[in-house]
Write a structure and sequence with these properties.
Two copies of one chain form a homodimer. Chain A is an alpha+beta fold. Chain A folds into two domains: 5-76 and 191-198, Glutaredoxin; 83-188, Glutathione S-transferase Yfyf (Class Pi), Chain A, domain 2. In chain A, 57% of the residues lie in helices and 9% in strands. Chain A has eight helices and four strands. The first copy, chain A, has helices spanning 17-25, 40-43, 65-76, 83-108, 112-140, 152-168, 177-187, 190-198, and strands at 5-10, 30-35, 54-57, 60-62. A four-stranded mixed sheet of chain A has the order 2-1-3-4, with helices on one face. In chain A, α1 (17-25) packs across α6 and α5 packs across α7 (177-187). The mean pLDDT of chain A is 96. Chains A, B: Homodimer. Chains A, B: Residues 3-80 form the GST N-terminal domain. Chains A, B: This is glutathione transferase. Chains A, B: Residues 82-204 form the GST C-terminal domain.
């Protein structure tokens, strides 16, 4: 009997979307449980780390979004063939996380002066530096971030870019041709394209 | 012929120490290249992401410290037997990273008022919450963080606690008996104990 999957996350792409991309890529049926702002305070204490997403697999509750994505990647055949390929994939994912965390830090900063300062650092330093590095990875790997083939790093990247573009308010990878290629290599996968076409639109913030 | 390893990091435990623990655990000979503050500006542009640590393996340069630690863990037999065990290990490591990042954010904050605010959040919220969670993991896994056995999550935890205790200035895990047990399970491994006894003392900050 196939495993039963239930993803619980906010009604948003965010940190849940890489996992959704991976599940859809693998053709895995799953319950896509979407929590509203009103529901979250009641649910929060019952989650393992007070955070979403969580993924229930045959009743076991998995947490920590990147670890969950790596686990799902192993189930759908999107990891590397060798330990070194898996290092390369992990390093690309962690580099995506590096810019995701900086965009989130800017977005959630309450102090206006500090927020402006974080935005300048993002635009003038963080994004140009990290995106140039990732663009080079993608150029070296034929339009993928690692291992010269489609891996979960690419799905992770495309989903995170999708979400961060929504909060950033502009397509910040547009001038990085190899990153545009990575995104396109992911969003043109039929199962992903179909999911993007029918999924709820982000309307959280 | 065995692989040739060279770790390049600052003359400090920090993000290099989990990798050093793993290499020593595995009995892997490696060059422990320690960079001084004076040397770093010249070296930085030649590193893949402008960051240390990097680990050269037979001339290939690996970067992103957690990804490197996971890679070394695969070489020394400290990963899980199943995909779910590896998820559990990764989730524990990411939870250690969650508190490490918050301690670092406090430590490096330049604004005195903000720094005090971050310290209060650390002491009253972040550390009690995350350390209680990790202590529960350790209790459930017989003195290890995951998979009911020694894994790289434990070595990662012990090395990061070592470093963060140095910058925090107090043994903040002392009141969590299961975390003390995890640390002791790691530091009593002969190769790790011998390394700790002979390694350079942190004197960076």
């Amino acid at each position: 009997m196939p495993s039963q999957y239930k993803l619980t996350y906010f009604d948003l792409t965010g940190l849940g979307e890489p996992i959704r991309f991976l599940l859809h890529y693998g053709g895995i049926n799953f319950v896509d449980q979407r929590i509203t702002k009103d529901q979250w305070p009641n649910l929060k204490p019952s989650t393992p780390l007070g955070q979403l997403p969580i993924l229930e697999v045959d009743g076991r509750v998995l947490y920590q979004s990147v670890a969950v994505a790596r686990y799902v990647a192993t189930q759908v055949g999107l990891t590397g063939k060798t330990d070194l390929e898996n290092w390369e994939i992990d390093a690309a994912v962690d580099t995506v996380e590096d810019f995701r965390v900086k965009i989130a830090a800017w977005f959630f900063e309450a102090n206006p002066a500090k927020k402006q300062q974080l935005k300048q650092a993002l635009d003038n330093e963080v994004l140009p530096f990290l995106l140039t590095k990732l663009d080079t990875f993608a150029n070296n790997n034929g339009g993928y971030l690692a291992a010269n083939k489609l891996t979960w790093a690419d799905l992770f990247f495309a989903a995170i870019v999708d979400f961060t573009t929504y909060i950033y308010g502009a397509d910040f990878i547009a001038k990085y041709p190899n990153l545009v290629r990575v995104r396109s290599n992911v969003t043109s996968i039929p199962a992903i394209r179909a999911w993007i076409a029918r999924r709820p639109k982000d309307n959280w913030y």
